Amino acid sequence: MNTNSVIKPTIDKYIEHGIATLNDVEVVDVLLSLKSDRTNRIGLAKKYLTHYNSLVNVISSAVNENVLDNTISENFHFGLRLPHDIANRYLFDKVSTAKSMHSPGDVLQYLQHSMRGSDVEQFKVLYLNNQHQIIKNDNASIGTINTAAVYPREIIKSALRYNASALVLAHNHPSGTVTPSSSDRSLTRKLVEAAKVFDIDVLDHFIIGGDRHYSFSDHGLI
Questions:
Q1: Among residues 44, 52, 112, which one has the least CA distance to residue 78?
Q2: pLDDT bracket for residue 79 (50, 70, 90)
Q3: Global pTM?
């Protein structure tokens, strides 16, 4: 089968009419075309979608490096993960180059995108200067599907090393629920209290669950 005879029309359709005109198989087809070889990409695209059930799950599996089989892992990671990583870089650059963090929506958008699809719990810390510009973005912990070990002492040590004046905390719940657990609440209190000793403000703690989120600040818990 001539792969180019299948791929070119899909790419042309995307260029001429936009991504909204493509079905899920065609979207995966275009992403896979970023890695050029003789593979039947339409066949792979259908295989991915059949196995993972949705486009979201396909991208999430690429992010988590859960490949369908070893023979197609190179295509899978290059074609499907690259757009996610580029978008993640764009969103972080957008918030990190801002004069100040007056748009919590942009910060939340970055955090949601960076954690979306992860099948393990992550805890991120954004360290800010006194103008509320981002100094450092740190993965404080990456754990298992339902826990990540976080040590307040290490976060405060990092804040002092970066000369941070404020922190934004975030972690994801791979289950999709955004209701804070008792340990989430306890950890947040400990971090807020420890930060206060050094005149460091904790501006918010976000829990990310898919497209949903929970803000400790919005609920009066910070």
A1: 44
A2: low
A3: 0.65
